[in-house]
Amino acid sequence: MSTTDITTWWNGPKFLTLSRDHWPKSLQTNACMDNEDVVQEIVKHPASVSHSLVTTRSEGQSVDLGQIIDIERYAYVLRFIRNAKKNTPDGQAHKIPREPRTKELNAQELNQAEKHWIKTVQKASFAKELDFLESQKGTFPPVYVTQLGLFLDDQGIIRCKGRVNNAPLSQPSKNPILFPSKHH
Hints:
The protein has helices at 3-11, 35-44, 74-86, 89-93, 107-125, 127-135, 143-148, 171-174, and strands at 150-152, 158-160. By secondary structure, it is mostly helical. Among the domains are: 3-36, no CATH class; 126-184, no CATH class. β1 (150-152) and β2 (158-160) form a beta hairpin. The chain is elongated. It starts with a helix and ends in a 10-residue tail after the last helix.
């Protein structure tokens, strides 16, 4: 940012320091236009809105979410997305309940973010295994599927079967979640 931009940011445009006689003249003043004129002008020249999505990856590749979003703030990103959906006509049609606005995340938001993050990491790191487990098609399963006894739990998360299945432990301890080594 240049020093001129910073000065304008803090002080406003230079003409504001001059007398009103030296201010730029607008083509139309608010006093000239009433509401009907404004509506007619909008109807004659509607605003054009265009949306564009550009991607440099092919569909077969997955995105490493950790390079885009900080894991520490991921639950806040999901909250923002959920709140943004509430303000759309589609969100209003479904009558999404309004939650109290707080800075603190609740347990449900944290659990949802954790599950979504796990699925994203697994999809990026174990795409072949996930495709096989979801479809159960193919002549030979990927190596990790048989080697680690991989399966999808009821939430769609890849878990491992092990020798401790008969131990008196909790289910998550018996069947740990599959993660790539050295992942954050």
